[in-house]
């Protein structure tokens, strides 16, 4: 009887880790007493990612600190964490430590027709050879998604609606005159904080775009 009267919290989660899922929304309607730890478990089960391989951030700065990930190991209830019953609580699912979330393996007996629809994660590019079977095979390895594209180029992970900035950065990187001029610039750590130096961070980003073995950084 108490459970029936308990307030419910509506959570709307947007997966911002790749372009295929950024427009999709996952909805959870949870009791207000749900621990944060259980919230992460439910989200992981819903989207098909391994729990602990992603962050959850507030979709707006109204509920929490905005840029600080929600503590996935906390036993604090979602109500105490700032979630509001009777309102839409928007969350962003983001990558953790620069790595894409790990896709959970399907159990060998799971062959429902909706399996492909439920899959949320990077999809193979059209026309790529030998990729489609990797995504539906039970022996599918997520490492193949993280490996560098056969084109030799490295992408940028969308940090929630930054596609316009990613396009500009890639354009600058693909301009040899600009890229080479940036490489010749030397950073003086004694004069500036490296974390606040835009040219230094841009130089570092370009080096990663040129040398990383990942599909995206």
TrEMBL record:
InterPro entries: Papain-like_cys_pep_sf (IPR038765), Peptidase_C19 (IPR050164), Peptidase_C19_UCH (IPR001394), USP (IPR028889), USP_CS (IPR018200). PROSITE patterns: USP_1 (PS00972), USP_3 (PS50235). Residues 154-217 form the USP domain. Pfam families: Ubiquitin_USP47_N (PF25985), UCH (PF00443). Keywords: Hydrolase. One of its GO terms (biological process) is protein deubiquitination. GO terms for molecular function: cysteine-type deubiquitinase activity. GO terms for cellular component: cytosol; nucleus. This is UBP47 hydrolase. It comes from Tichodroma muraria.
